[in-house]
Amino acid sequence: MICNYSLNKLNTFNIKNNAIKIIKVKNLKQLCQIWKKYKKKKLPCLILGKGSNVLFLNNFYGLVVINKIKGIHINESSKYWNLHINSGENWHKLVKNTIKNKIYGLENLALIPGSVGSAPIQNIGAYGSSIKDFCQYVDIINPINQKIQRINKKKCKFKYRDSIFKHDDYKNHIIISIGLSLSKKWIPNLNYKDLKKLRTNVNITPQQIFNYICNIRKKKIPNPKIYGNAGSFFKNPFISSKLGLKLLKIYPQIPIFIENNKLKLSAGWLINQCKFKGYIQNGVMVHSKQALIILNKSNNATGMDILKLAIKIYNTVGIKFDIWLEPEVKIINSYGEVNPSFFFKKIKN
Ligand code: FAD
Ligand code: EPU
Fold this sequence. Notes:
single chain; alpha+beta; Uridine Diphospho-n-acetylenolpyruvylglucosamine Reductase, domain 2; Uridine Diphospho-n-acetylenolpyruvylglucosamine Reductase, domain 3; Uridine Diphospho-n-acetylenolpyruvylglucosamine Reductase, domain 1; four-stranded mixed β-sheet; 7 helices; 22% helix; globular; binds flavin-adenine dinucleotide; binds uridine-diphosphate-2(N-acetylglucosaminyl) butyric acid
């Protein structure tokens, strides 16, 4: 079969691979029809929002569906704004528009690229907030039998960069909409270290926090249209308190954070300690302002070039610290998502 539909503008790493077919869908009926048609032909199917968390290694020998299912419904109770949002909406636009309409709470999650439907999958988070703080439910569909299910917040099992939607039972489902509740009583969330400067302003507004966060983000993370990237390539690792104490003795400045009673380390710091900042290999670079971000600096690299540098980082950090990073980005080969353990293998000393 001919594989000549370009994925280049549909993934933020700007990888130049193709798919057999790419279709933008605007409603559920169209989505299910096309999905079933390609499944019948025994071809793999992949849904994408904005392609901001995927790494294509090869051409994709199947159907790629681009989610454009839009629509936002808002109702209110005495204490909350309740938003029902279809999955093809743009996350950042949603954040921007809620604030414009005096519905507050999402400002810390500004400028995260992607669609609304992908947001619960890894429980998107930034600047001390994550979608789990607002999400009440996620609606999913099985595109083969068209069965729709509502998964309530508890069943979503949101954790740091994780939810039930990343795991096997739900991998064949498509997220069609989500429900968010935003309190009418707005309290600024300024706990994150980088927001310290704002704490002295007792009259701070959501718009000011939004603007401030957009500015920091623009300084730290290159616009993927200029240098392809997918944000953080790896997750920040949780470590045991024993290892934390050991590392603190050797590196008193080490950035260790406490999250849900567990110790979380900055992966960017670990990568930086291995002298990777600014390191370049085959047109792929470790960002000099944020070591967690891998850039397609030449915008000509292949997915394999990016993966090779990521594996080098993984091995170097692992050997130096005995901490084995976990990729955040989803790796896609010709037939679908690949388990990262296939490429990232712990080296035994
Ligand atoms: P895609 O890359 O299109 O898809 C990701 C995965 O989800 C794929 O496996 C896809 O098949 C699946 N998928 C997509 N839509 C659906 C659906 N409707 N139903 C079921 N499965 C689906 N993330 C953060 O958490 N915090 C950040 O601060 C952050 N900053 C970033 C900055 C930059 C510059 C970039 C490029 C990325 C950043 N990310 C961040 C990662 C990314 O924005 C999020 O993971 C986002 O939710 C991905 O959305 P997407 O629509 O682009 O997903
Ligand atoms: N740090 C370094 N060197 C680096 C990067 C970070 O030493 O190169 C240390 C510094 O001490 C810094 C601390 O780590 O103060 C935290 O850095 P930053 O605020 O940049 O956050 P991060 O932990 O590196 C996480 C998310 C980002 C999110 C930011 C802001 C992950 C994997 N990444 O990065 O999310 O935007 O916090 O909240 O959790 C993404 O997931 O794609 C993403 C960009």
